[in-house]
Amino acid sequence: MDDDDIWLPNKLEIQIKAMKDKGFMMSCTDGLIGKGIFNGNEKSYKKYNAEHYFDTLINIYKEKGKGDLLSFEQGFPTVWDFNFLNVHNCCICSSVVVEKKLLDKIKKPGDEVIYRDLDDDMLFVSGLTESGMKIAEKDQTEEHKKMFKLSDKLVSELKESDIIIISAPIYNYGPPATLKAWCDLAARIGETFRFKPNGRREGLLKNKQAYLVITSGGTKLNSSEDFLTPWLKFILNFFGIEKVEVISADQMALDYEKSIKEAEKQIENII
User: What is the rounded distance in angstroms from the CA atom of residue 43 to the CA atom of residue 212?
Assistant: First the structure.
């Protein structure tokens, strides 16, 4: 959570019960806000989306031509489906709860989980032409040093992991920019790959299992429009990771519930 957020005592209990009752794998809640100050006279806070932000949300839907999607006649909707969130994401990050079915399925007692959010402090390789990011320390600029420090961390995480789970959406038929940046920083000659005397490449990350959880709005996975899945499998093979299994939650904009249920079945079938 953010340092100015607080959960109510029964928040998780109520939220998890609702998820089980509805069969949802992910949920979020509205938040209470008093413009930063508790209203002592009314003994209450304002609801962030349903009250404090309500007029703004109505205008957003009108501007995007989705006025007929949700009338808001009954106030702010209590259930936010994909069509609603596709217009404007109202999720309060501090409230999100997601099932760990995938991790529970493959995680063994005593296993350590390393979590990497690619939206956190990711650096993009720019103006770096040397193969495999191999630059003598004396020739490194301050920008190079920052990249190598992060690169060392990413490579270390890959080396230490027996199982690698990558969750990624398809953006404009390809990978998110941060995922491409991660691959660029993880591609280190002598660390994740090498060249043999005959000039052929060899991946150095052997005996690892990778799971790719790929989501999309309208793109069908493994179709001619899907440039993310084959590219990511190739990159992992390039690193030496040959065991790659794909879990698909594609075309969510067409049938959200169907996509989620099919993804759940794929997770259940993982041995």
Answer: 48
Q: For 42-78, give one letter per residue: b (16+ CB within 10 A) or e.
A: eeebbbbbbebbbeebeeebeeeeeeeebeeeeebee
Gap between the Cα atoms of 90 and 95, Å rounded: 11
Contact 192, 205 (CB under 8 A): yes
The pLDDT score that the predictor gives to residue 93 is 67
**In sequence order, what are the beta bridge partners of 244?**
210
Domain parsing of the chain, residue ranges: 11-98, 101-268
What sign does the CA torsion over 158, 208, 180, 91 have? negative
More confident residue, 228 or 95: 228
CATH class of the region 101-268? alpha beta
Distance CA 134, CA 140 (A): 10
Mean pLDDT of the chain: 80
Task: Output the six-digit token pair for 103.
Answer: 């991790």
Strands (E), 4-84: 26-27, 32-33, 46-47
